[in-house]
Amino acid sequence: MKQKAVHDDDWAYVYVIKNPSYNDITLCAWDSVLYAGTPVVYGTRFGLDLGIVVGPAPVPGRSYIPGSTDVRGACLRFGEEGDDEEPSSPEAHQCDSCFRCQIAKEPERIRVTGDADWIDHLATPSEMARYSENASREEEALRICREKIRRHNLGMKLVTTHFLLGEPKVIFFFTADDRVDFRELVKDLVSVFRMRIELRQIGVRDESRLIGGLSVCGRDYCCHLMTREMDPVTIKMAKEQNLSLNSMKISGPCGRLLCCLAYEYDYYMEEKAACPPEGTRLRLDHELWRVTEVNILSRKITVSGSEGRTISIPFEEVSFSDRTGFWEVSEEYQEELFST
Questions:
Q1: What is the value of pTM for the model shown?
Q2: What is the pLDDT of residues 287-300, one digit of tens each?
């Protein structure tokens, strides 16, 4: 029997659901506790389909403070015992409220507001059997569709296919440089499969998200493993982080800029907003020095003066003066620097 949810109130558990066929990630509510790996049937943009519970969604709590340097990588806490409690005071460390990437947390019942998506029901054994049967048919469907594409001489590359669980429909994902007229192809496919046919054109980044693989860092593609939205990535993000602008070094296997360029971009912009930009003139010891580098990782700026001299100054010793309208180095630091 299908276990359909009866939503008596707005309180529910919220879970991260991932579709194993085309790697869509969404948040869905359910009335009881579920654990990672539970198969469910939920509404996707294509219709009802099978999804796998990844885990409980992070609940609202103490959020990251923009510009805070009091953070540790979540992985650094992996393996620590007796440290699973939520922070009990506002003075708790920033990372104490992180979701962590290795330690599972128990689902928490919260109030669901707005137009939330709900899991339709838990997958039944018969649905799991049908899903396995559909998966075994997909390779043959790919072969048949590719033959039809060659016969119609269409300029399109078939990427993958998927039989929907909730209704008799098969979806073919393809890439193409130009618009493709596939009306005759659809007619041929309908005559073979005797069900609804949907051909969906995707981009090269979506292709990588669907088929997966290993990136230059040696880990699974971010778009395939964990990224929910395909956010734009720009060359400005690489420039602001002082990364190489060699396209071979900052592009992924899909040929587009690496998704991870966007991960630290906001932090770099927050930090740089509190520092003098490169080219700014600073007065040190009655001499003008020019800012040549702002190093976010070491939290120091490098200034150059006459005769090729350079000095590294910590961020905390430099501030903008509203009185003079210029960036200034603290007098205490100057005295300590030039007294030696």
A1: 0.70
A2: 899 999 999 989 99
